[in-house]
């Protein structure tokens, strides 16, 4: 695949790290391969940065941040709006780059570019709405107020499953309120990050405010991010295991932390659900991005009275899903990102079958070969199965049967995770009862698709800390200062 020939503007395909406003090769000259997950073909060679380059980026960010913070919110907002416009103008190319390095279908990639860009537009607007308070003073001669000020330099580590949107959801709020950032993109998908940097550069975001440091040595790069005193905040999307390491390593420098970690989302279908709505919602939630999102339904709990009907209707739809190269027409499911991910999916299916599960459709590697896996539905799922306690991160719906509302809530909450939970019911009272009882950051009734710049995205328990997007997203990048003025 010649990626350059697929895009209109090949200057969006960058291979250097982006530090202090320029694309630069690794100091050592080292590069790493970016491959297309469909063919395993190398589509680019990208600078493999070491810890010293991360330090250089931190120095650039630290030097640039005060002047950026000193701009008015409106000035920063106007530059961000320009970045948003450029992303939308180049949406087709950004989507092609994303599909080439990540494998999701092109239509889904285009959807992600719209989603990702919406965070830039939203936070350009929110920048102007950062407000402190004037407090009722306890002293006649003193005024009390609060100021909201940027934390300073922040570090971001982003995943491969949303190579565009997870960057903009972190970078846009941070820079909108006057911070500067150093960002390490996933090694599988650095090209989308570098294309965003190119557009940020064209939009006039000053040198040093956004720095992108690709590299294979994640522990070394992460170590600088956690231990450098000049970095005041770290934001990460990825596994709970890595989130714990980052939290531990950031303890010495007492950083502000936001973590968007793993999930084990329940999707509950009650007897009184609208069947078509529940099937559509399950497909939207479970099979989005080939099941590779932190909010994909992982355990599907179906009440006994609707179980067989739901299983049959879901199976009929899933069996029709077209799997293939994301660049081909009509494809709705691409490959699993890598061999490790593919093996986990295989392991979960084999384990479910060994423990009495029945495969209604799929259940094996797809004839496309490589890391393609058939969209799968399994009935007769049991608590002892791996899919009950581990996130599959693949296109496998395991259907558990339950009898009562109370039982469904207990099963749904029976996990260390607490990111998203879905449920389907037409009983309004139940909508509120269940929504309040679910120990999750996001309780979603009667739909499987809800991600947008407007809703606060984030989890509780082992699923993380903090919220991204929404009117609350800027809070993660601001410190509150008490200011007291005496002698009045
Ligand atoms: C994720 O999987 O972490 C993000 C999903 C989303 O933003 O909807």
- Beta-strand content bin: 15-25%
| Lateral strand order in the biggest sheet | 14-15-16-13-12-17-18
> Which structural class best describes the helix and strand composition?
alpha/beta
Number of strands: 20
Basic shape: globular
Average of per-residue pLDDT values: 98
Give a short account of the largest sheet: 7 strands, mixed
Terminal residue distance: 71 Å
Would you identify the regions where 5 or more consecutive residues have pLDDT less than 50?
none
Provide the list of bound ligands, each named once: succinic acid
Helix percent reads 25-40%
How many DSSP helices? 15
Q: Characteristics of this structure?
A:
488 residues; 7-stranded mixed beta sheet; alpha/beta; binds succinic acid; 15 helices; 6-stranded mixed beta sheet
Q: Topology of this structure?
A:
Layout: H1 3-6, E1 17-19, E2 22-24, E3 31-35, E4 42-47, H2 51-70, H3 73-89, H4 91-102, H5 106-126, E5 133-135, E6 143-150, E7 153-157, H6 165-176, E8 180-184, H7 190-203, E9 210-212, H8 218-227, E10 231-237, H9 240-249, E11 256-260, E12 265-269, H10 275-286, E13 297-303, H11 307-319, H12 339-354, E14 358-361, E15 376-379, H13 386-389, E16 396-402, H14 405-413, E17 420-424, H15 428-437, E18 442-445, E19 464-465, E20 478-485
Parallel strand pairs: 7-8, 7-10, 8-9, 10-11, 12-13, 12-17, 13-16, 15-16, 17-18
Antiparallel strand pairs: 1-2, 3-4, 5-6, 6-20, 11-19, 14-15
Helix pairs in contact: 2-8, 3-5, 3-7, 4-5, 4-7, 5-6, 10-11
Bound molecules: succinic acid.
The site of succinic acid has 9 residues, from loops.
